[in-house]
Amino acid sequence: MGAYLKRAASLHVPLVGLCTGSFILARLGLMQQYRTCVSWFHSNQFIGEFPELEAASDELFVVDRDRLTCAGGTSVVHLAAFLVERHCNKAQAAKALRILIETMPLSANTPQPQPLFTEETDNVRVRKAMLLIERNLGTPLSVDFIAQHVHVSSRHLERLFLAEIGMSPSTFAMKLRLSNAYNLLATTKNSIIDIAMQCGFQSNSHFARSFRGAHGMTPSQVREPFRSICSN
Fold first, then answer.
1. Which of 10, 55, 201, 229 is the most exposed place for a label (fewest CB within 10 A)?
2. The pTM is what?
């Protein structure tokens, strides 16, 4: 396969790396002098393995001459729509997206949804608790419930969180919910009230107050610049 890809590259055949396909192209030396799109999930690994390459983890896909790379997931759909539009027309690209139950094309520079939490820990109980919180953002869990799930007392769980990531489970959960809300505001067309409910807030006013306290701006102010990106 490597020889086949190198032969294709020598003939200037465009090469597409989907998700971790970018690693394969880079290991074959086929991404030198090219920008590479990498999912935020694999960004550190890619940079560590290929420090000399220019990697972008804040875009859905990158088209750099005859190299096309994308973050994976649904970004594959939008890269495909870009190609359909380039080689056919915009109407056929829109039709293809509708068949795939996508409502609109997203441009290459649309931001990738970022990781909901960046705090790292090797403590198994804290890690399990963090993942449990992440899976239940729409229905916030009590500290007692989380502690019971990871088989420690509530007080001990509080101590573990403070020691490992410098905040309580409740503070971490709120930070996660607000981070998820920010991503949804930036990457979806869902209404603000729907996003508030999806992130476990019982009212729009509670959401707005909490969001402004965390980000220094209202949900509407965050969404405005991304509207212009999606409209271009």
1. 10
2. 0.54
